[in-house]
Model the fold of this input.
Amino acid sequence: MSSPTPISRRRAAALLTATAGAAALGSFPGPLRWRVPSAALAQGELERITVPLDWYPNANHAGLFLAQERGYFADAGLAPEFYTPSDPTTVLQTVGAGRDAFGISYQTDILLARAAKVPVASVLALVQTPLQGIMVLASSGIERPADLVGKSVGYPGIPSQEAYLATMLADDGAAMSDVDLVNIGFDLVPGLISGRVDASLGAFWTHEPILAEQEGYPTRMLKVDDWGVPRYYELVIAASDETVAQRGDLIARFLGATRRGYEDAIADPVAAIAALRAANPDLDVPVEEAGIKLLIPAWTTGGVPFGTQTRERWESYARWMAEHDLIPADLDVAAAWRGDLAPAAATPVSA
Done:
């Protein structure tokens, strides 16, 4: 049986961000610690920056490591250190406090962070579409949310995921009172294949179903955006308000190199997985090889250039979050993202 999956651990950031609030940041540290003295930059030294990931290196991060391996960050005068923090739920806090230059997070968590007065914004979308859904065994006969009536649904206890389920059920003529919601922590795959629950909410269709299939349990995914949840950006790159205001040059250089890496990963996923494995020797290569095949279309869904963000996407998702009491209705959504800081993209890539 598989170990607890990391996807749910990453999503636990929503709870921490919403409850910890600005107090968790403490006082701002003054000059950002990752800045290199201007004299050193004048001599051609690379600017060293730190970038926490949302979890261990996986196919979602392949473009970052390919860009690093091929020298794209160095070409931009940067030496980024990508790392998995001991507590990945603190990514937006350390970025907002200036202890890290950028961080990998989620659109949901950016909005929760803004509501909690954490000064961060999304500067690029890594994934154009939701990756979450409800995972069921292929043999279960469950094909739509209404089929969950009278069934048990396991989830990690995160409020945003309860809102996903409520929306999906309502979209199919059912209600939360029709299902038995069970907090199974991080055991999305074990909980399902052991029969403890009939469905697992919060699985990523680019990861958990692959793990279940490896163990001989084919699954079916009910994607959140197929059943009433507005489309949102799953993973994003976050920067602090201070960085946005004062370091547009840094953002442009970092995002430009990042985009080159992901465009290369789209064209050559084998090389991307090789770069990822070099960065993470413990990588489960078969899982990530299968995952990147699913992710590549999601990086440019709709034929948009990699990294695209739009006002409509941010506002529609924020309205949905407000309707489910996840954020205040009067939250300044415009301050939560910037779509104009990345260099101009190349030709859009077909979905």
